[in-house]
Design goal:
CATH superfamily: Chorismate synthase AroC
CATH architecture: 4-Layer Sandwich
Radius of gyration: 21 Å
Structural class: alpha+beta
Helix content: 25-40%
Number of strands: 18
Largest sheet: 5 strands, antiparallel
Order of helices and strands: EEEHEEEEHHEEHHEHEHEEEEEEEH
Length: 357
């Protein structure tokens, strides 16, 4: 199934942006794991729309209703199923788009694949709304990981031309993750965050949009985790991350900059620290040969600008077979990156938990 993720812990996402509800089924969770639902709600609250002037005005409570899998807040071995109601959908905003595909959306290829029966409302199951159940599953997996000493965190690395400080690839830790998680705008530097917000607002006033980069790190992963050659940590993380709408690229460690470096510059020297093997630098991003090295796993994800913009664009009428002009109505994020931070954390947590269980 295309909406399934994982091998030992298997996550299935279901629903559409404007269906009655969306949700997730998590199978393979070990029994006896206590799940703090308040922590789950807090995590979902970081992703929820309507929480700032830089996001869509669609307001959803994103309150997960548990149908199975928990008894007194503890996993019982049965699949954990949760649903999240869609309460603020405005389907009429999409009536005019049935035969007029929006540029840079999945509308046209979905129209072809599903022979015109695709759900156009809010993008259907191609919508960023589907990251809500992904984040539910990620919140559950984060708690399981943290009991095993593994912590996952992310921040906005860049929006447009504005950049945040980078994670220290050698010493980044859960303390910084927690500080970032408490912020309404998840950057390391508050000054950088203010510049990014100003840039978003200036572009939004022109009815345009922006993209950006999310940097994510996982600490505490033991060395030697992964299954080469096609089930390595990088392979599986990349596959999960590309399930998040609007992702355009991913790089680990120094990423594409490594192509401009010499071997003597890129190689990470080994050393012993308190009896443990470490590397003095972390250009490899915590992964070698598809296996974790014991250093923090570091990667960055690039997101395209929100394709739903208020400017007039060129499209086609698939029914009349003519060129037309299009102005998109509705409620859309001028930049999805601030909310994508949580989705990246969630996808990473699911993959890493799947490897460790």
């Amino acid at each position: 199934m295309s909406s399934d993720l994982g091998k030992n812990i298997r996550v299935t996402i279901f629903g559409q942006s404007h269906s009655a509800a969306i949700g997730a089924v998590i199978d393979g969770l070990p029994a006896g794991e206590k799940i703090d639902m308040e922590q789950v709600r807090d995590f979902l609250g970081r992703r929820a729309p309507g929480s700032g002037s830089h996001v869509t005005r669609r307001k959803e409570k994103d309150e997960p209703v548990i149908l199975s899998g928990l008894i007194n807040g503890i996993t019982c071995g049965a699949p954990l199923c949760a649903v999240i109601e869609n309460t603020d959908a405005r389907s009429k905003d999409y009536d005019a788009l049935r035969y007029v595909p929006r540029p840079s959306h999945a509308d046209y290829p979905a129209y072809v694949k599903y022979e015109g029966f695709n759900d156009i409302r809010g993008g259907g199951h191609f919508s960023g709304r589907m990251t809500a159940p992904l984040c539910f599953a990620g919140a559950v997996c984060k708690q399981i990981l943290e009991r095993r000493g593994v912590h996952v965190g992310a921040h906005i690395a860049a929006i447009g031309s504005e950049k945040d400080e980078a994670f220290d690839p050698v010493s980044v830790g859960p303390g910084l993750f927690e500080v970032i998680a408490q912020k309404s705008f998840p950057t390391i530097s508050d000054e950088a965050g203010e510049r990014m917000l100003a840039l978003i607002h200036s572009v939004a006033e022109k009815r345009d949009s922006l993209g950006g980069v999310v940097e994510c790190a996982a600490t505490g992963m033991p060395a030697g985790v992964g299954e080469p050659m096609f089930d390595g940590i990088e392979n599986r993380l990349a596959a999960a991350i590309f399930g998040i709408p609007a992702v355009r690229g991913i790089e680990f460690g120094t990423g594409f900059e490594a192509a401009e470096m010499k071997g003597s510059e890129h190689n990470d020297p080994y050393s012993y620290e308190d009896g443990k093997v470490t590397t003095r630098t972390n250009n490899h991003g915590g992964v070698l040969g598809g296996l974790t090295s014991g250093m923090p796993v570091i990667f960055r994800t690039a997101f395209k600008p929100t394709p739903s913009i208020g400017l007039e664009q060129k499209s086609v009428d698939l029914k009349q077979k003519t060129d037309v002009s299009l102005v998109i109505e509705g409620r859309h994020d001028p930049c999805i990156v601030p909310r994508a931070v949580i989705a990246v954390e969630a996808a990473a947590a699911i993959v890493l938990a799947d490897f460790l269980i």
